[in-house]
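Sequence design from tokenized structure. All designs in this work follow the same two-part layout: the structure record, then the generated sequence. An example of the structure record is given first.
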């Protein structure tokens, strides 16, 4: 049996939404293992002087939780 967890992160890029997604997943992978997917929940842009200055995405990142290490077998009760 496996159990997954979903976290929400925010990422940005000056290039594109695609790059913001790639940067977000890459950074998440630095500290999370077994990432299985990401869902773009929301997109927005920062506008400066009438031009798009930054692309932003809110991502929901899914990763599989590791099983806890097995502990030594407990002594049987008498």
């Amino acid at each position: 049996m496996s159990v997954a967890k979903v976290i929400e992160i925010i990422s940005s890029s000056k290039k594109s939404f695609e790059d913001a997604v790639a940067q977000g997943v890459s950074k998440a992978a630095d500290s999370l293992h077994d990432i299985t997917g990401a869902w773009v929940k929301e997109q927005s842009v920062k506008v400066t002087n009438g031009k798009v200055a930054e692309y932003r995405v809110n991502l929901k990142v899914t990763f599989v939780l590791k099983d806890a290490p097995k502990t030594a077998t407990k002594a049987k009760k008498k």
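The beta strands are 3-13, 35-48, 51-65. We note this feature because it recurs in several other targets discussed in the main text.
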